[in-house]
Predict the structure.
Amino acid sequence: MDPISCAVLVLGGGPGGYVCAIRAAQLGLDTVLVESGPLGGTCLNVGCIPSKALIHAADAFHTARRFAGGSPLGIRVAEPEFELKTMMAWKDGIVSRLRGGVYGLLRRANIKVVSGIGILRDGKTCVVETDMGRQEITAEHVVIATGSESIPLPGLPFGGAVVSSTEALAFEDMPKRLVVVGGGYIGLELGTAYRKLGVGVTVVEAAERILPQYDAELTRRVMARLGKLGVDVLLNAKAVGLDRSGPALRIERGDGREQRLPADKILVTIGRRPRIAGFGLEELDLRMSGNAIEIDDQCRTSMRNVWAVGDVTGEPMLEHRAVAQGEMVAEIIAGEKRSFDKVAIPAVCFTDPEIVTAGLSPEAARAAGHAVKTASFPFTANGRAMTLEAEDGFVRIVARADNHVVLGLQAVGQSVSELSAGFALALEMGTRLEDIAATVHVHPTLGECIREAALVALGHGLHA
Amino acid sequence: MPERVITLPDVGEGVAEAEVVEVPVKVGDPVREGDVLAAVMTDKATVEIPSPAEGRVAWIGAELGQKVAVGSVIVKLDVADSTAPARKEQVTVALKPTPAPRTAPDATETEAADAPRAPQPAPEAARPREHVRSAAPSSPPAKPAERPLAAPVVRAFARDAGVDLRFVKGSGPAGRILHEDVEAYLATASRGPLPAYGLVRNTAVEEIKIIGLRRRIAERMQDAMRRIPHFSYIEEVDVTDLESLRADVNETRRRDRPRLTVLPFLMRAMVTALRDHPEINARYDDANDTLHRYGGVHIGIAVQTPNGLMVPVVQHVEALTIWDCASEVARLSEAARSGTAKREELTGSTITITSLGALGGIASTPVINAPEVAIIGVNKIALRPVWRGAAFEPRKIMNLSSSFDHRIVDGWNAAQFIQKLRSLLEAPAKIFMEA
């Protein structure tokens, strides 16, 4: 096949890669995207999107089951049932609609998509083994967006009963007992969803609490809810290995005691790591930062005109970070002056209740040397929350004590993920408590709690 | 906790003191056995001082750039090992014999007056610690860790205009920087008519500690210029014939032979010219009032390398053919550039050539590579109109800018020597006839 030469070669069609390609094309750069799998990457195909679909379905079923015994709302339903196959097909339908959308966007932007695994030969040349033969591509700029992969647990390799989140999003039969190894957000989201679908779920976490990177004030609500839902959470517990006698996981508790957890599926979600192997990246000898490609604040790697965006550059491995990076890299290549100067990269756990964080937690703000004012406003005092049966949780605001500039916003509660846009905007704009207090918030909404929290911080809360 | 005292070990070769060029640890830092506590530079090598034990740095007695004597205390460690008695520690050191540069800023290098000297500093020693201090025209920068408060669109505007927002005073609430503030900053920073968009004053002042290699260069330059009464003599040489000979020879040379530059011709011409001027091919031990005149001609070639200037030496040029000269120059320059030159290849020159011709320049006043007494500088070859009896003719003219130690070489002798060189180079056949 004739070699292709282009201005920008994007290696990887996940959110970081395809957004970079679209933006580059918008700016008039001749762009080629190489992807071996379906477009959309982890997020769209085996991550955020299918998991949110499953969580919604599980919530709906769970609500129906709650109503089966009668409810304060006066609704009573017959014992509900669900068909896993239909549920999965509905989820797959959403994924394929979005994926089709990505293909359409790339086509409209005149981006050439080459299907196959791209191997970088050097910082300018990529060889792709396609169905039609070997395709060589040379580019002035190479953007590495190869993403990340689940980390297997030593002694518990993926296969058989041991699955990663990818397989857990596409079970063909409902497991009776599911053991989740790793109490991070991925494990808890899926574990909660399957519990709500009636599966017996045990979470095994090596640390002394779940969601270790979030502060305890937030995670306490999730922990309590897991208990109410009947999810067993074993803290300070380590997975040791499979027990072959029956499908079961052997674990070691904090006191050294071994325990056997019967399970027909074991979901390992101990984290994700940058996907480096298999793209010729080792040969490029790029400078690494741990197991991720080292980048500067413009996503430049140690090699000239070789860029890296998204999960392959390390934590935080979040879709919206990858997108912001990809967009920026395209603009820099096109000659614009940009750098990654975001005040905050907000993060959401779609647990029950949901957690959203943006900016600094009170401890992190104090650790950074700030004198802080911090205030929370509970959903128990919010009308909308009551009408949604969503009174669990609160909104918290962290501001500098001296000039009231907002440093962080966090919330835990049902549907609080939707508050993240406002949180991020407040932080990027450099608002003060007074700005939020003086902004009209719609009644009755959960968002009112943001203003109320600001008022409390200013010492004149109206409803607290 | 017991304390262990780390002193500067005997780094060998009779060295009594060494300069501290690196202290990668701070008081309070935990260190493991083998971690580097400090690096010192002697005349011969850079020596890393490893930690003999695991512990915590309790005290650092060595400052960057300080000269410390062998046996003096450099670092004190608090060690966890309770069985270890408090004692002085003479650590074994990893000597890095660096093919270190003989260095000088302008193609020469000076040496102490004793015998041919060993190479010294390691490349990393040349890296200065930089302390950036900046000042702003309108206001001092905010506390360093603080991020300027500005909306994304204002940040983008500032970046496009080349403005560092840390220097802009914000007029908004809580010092928030507004679009207008950046515009105002651009206007005041220019003072007077508006400059081209995006040009701003740079008022940064950098403080760079001169240590290690650079300091050695500075000391030697100063020493050479203070002790040696230099005089420079500049003459133009018509190299038209030499250049056509060179072009011809390069065209028709055997495959295995190197391409000839002007340098090998100059080297061979110097061998011939020095026969009548043995006092110029010499090293002057001024402490003992002794001039060492050498039978062999050992020509130092100034080479710019990534680590600074080095002067590898082509030994016994009198015994080399012009092809050998060319090969040796190529080999030694490459070795110097890649840092693989051996110590003996960097010492013992009796006269030095410095060539800045490639960069242009019509004359220079090179500093003598002490204890030598002369240095020959080669300037660029330029096509110039020359009156040749009947008409102006285009001729290739090259200047030789040379410096001599007037204590040893009189102006008359120096001029004679250069004139001899000129006559040889202008009629290059003579270089070989008189060889």
